[in-house]
Specification:
80% of the residues lie in helices and 0% in strands. By secondary structure, the protein is mainly α. The chain has one domain. Helix 1 packs antiparallel against helix 2, helix 2 crosses helix 3 and helix 3 packs antiparallel against helix 4. The longest helix has 29 residues.
C-alpha cells in the first residue's frame, strides 16, 4: 500500500510541475511576450523532456525491459493528461493532439531505455 502511495505522490508532483510550467507559458502567451511558434516549440520541448525524465527515473529502477517501464509510465501520465484536457479544458481530439501525445509517449520510452542502461549495477 505504501508503494502505491509513493507512486501516486510522484505522479501528483510531476503533474503539478508540468501544470505550473504550462501556466507560466500560458501567461507569457497571453501577455504577448511569447506565443505562436516559439511558444509551441518551448511547450513541446518541455513536455518531451519531462516525459523523458519520468521514463529515465522509471528505467533506473527496472531490472529489464526498459521500454515496458517507459510505456507504462508514459501511458499513465498521458491518460491523466488526456482526461484533464477533455474534462476540464474541453479540448477536442485532433490529429495534432494525437501526434503530440505520441511524441510524449516515445520520449518516455526512450528515457526508460536510457535509464535502464545507465544503472550502476549493470556490468559491461
Amino acid at each position: 500500500m505504501l508503494e502505491k502511495f509513493k507512486k501516486l505522490k510522484k505522479i501528483i508532483i510531476y503533474l503539478i510541475v508540468l501544470g505550473v510550467f504550462l501556466l507560466i507559458l500560458s501567461v507569457l502567451g497571453l501577455t504577448n511576450l511569447i506565443g505562436g511558434t516559439p511558444g509551441a516549440i518551448i511547450s513541446m520541448t518541455f513536455g518531451a523532456f519531462s516525459f523523458f525524465v519520468a521514463g529515465f527515473v522509471r528505467g533506473k529502477k527496472r531490472a529489464k525491459n526498459g521500454y515496458v517501464g517507459g510505456l507504462l509510465t508514459g501511458g499513465v501520465l498521458l491518460i491523466i493528461i488526456f482526461l484533464i484536457s477533455i474534462i476540464i479544458f474541453r479540448v477536442k481530439i485532433n490529429p495534432a493532439m494525437l501526434i503530440y501525445y505520441g511524441i510524449l509517449l516515445i520520449s518516455s520510452i526512450v528515457g526508460s531505455v536510457v535509464g535502464i542502461n545507465k544503472r550502476k549495477d549493470v556490468e559491461a
